Structures are given as structure tokens and as C-alpha cells.
Amino acid sequence: AGQQHSSAQMAPVVRGDSHPFQVFEKPRQEGKLLRKKTGRTWACRNPWVSEWFVVSSEYLVSFASRTSAQVLTCICLSAVTKLEPNDTQSHIKICYAPHMGRAACDAGLELILRVAEAGELGRWVTAITEAQDRLRRDSVFVPLSCARENLEAE
């Protein structure tokens, strides 16, 4: 016959700040970046605006500041077609499709972000690339084999 489990046995195992499925949680990269304004800028005006950016498991989102609740930019990471880091100018060019399901030859948009320090460039590129990989690979589920391994290890 089947085994019966009490609710205490079914509760998630949590020890300190970690738990068995921590490896599957989506880390976030966030911080202040400069976004290049699109359109026409006057010669006396700075073409860069400071915004707070967050790379989540599915989106690249910007806000006016760290405490702002109003989203200024939201790009689905699955819509990103090209990611071009430029070490000499400390910026990243992100090309993306504004409409999902369009052909590659259709017009796209681009976002140019500048980092304050050269070391940050690699962290942002890695965060975006890894989030895209996770999104393609396993964003909706925890593989059963990995879940079993983690639970058996406990």
C-alpha cells in the first residue's frame, strides 16, 4: 500500500537562509546604469540619463530610481536578438524585437547602456546572458531528477 505523510514531513526543508532548491532560484542583477537617450539631443544636453536597472528571470526593467515604482523600460529577455558589449566605451548595446513573432529582417529597437566602471560591464552581460539561458532552459519547472537528488541529500 502507499505511504502516508504527515504535513510536517511535507513541509519544505529550510536551514538558515538556504533550502534544497536554492540553486534554481533566479538571482537578480540590479544597479544604476546610464541609458543613451533616443531621438534628437541638443549639443548642450547630455545624451545619457541615469536609471535603475534590474535583470530578472524574464525581463530587463528600468526605473527612474531605486525606490521608484514606475517602470520606464521593460524588455522581455526572449525578445533580445543581440547583446554587444563594448569594453572601450564601457557600454552594452542591446538589440531587441519590439513585436514577438516577427521575422529577423523586421525592424528592431536598440538600447545602449553605459556602466560606471569597466568591471561592471562583464557582470551585466553575464547576468543578461545567464537569465536568457535559464529562460530558454528551465524557467517553468525544477527538473524532477534534480529535485530528488536535493531531497535525498537532506
Any chance you could write out the topology, listing elements then pairs?
Layout: H1 7-10, E1 29-36, E2 48-55, E3 59-63, E4 71-76, E5 80-86, E6 91-96, E7 109-114, H2 118-138, H3 144-153
Antiparallel strand pairs: 1-2, 1-7, 2-3, 3-4, 5-6, 6-7
What does this 3D model show about the protein?
The structure is a single chain. The chain has helices at 7-10, 118-138, 144-153; strands at residues 29-36, 48-55, 59-63, 71-76, 80-86, 91-96, 109-114. With 154 residues, it is an alpha+beta fold. Strand 5 and strand 6 (91-96) form a beta hairpin. The two termini are 25 Å apart.
Outline: globular
Work out the helix count.
3
Beta-strand residue fraction: 25-35%
Structural class: alpha+beta
Give a brief outline of the structure.
The protein is 23% helix and 30% strand.
Features:
alpha+beta, 7-stranded antiparallel beta sheet, 3 helices
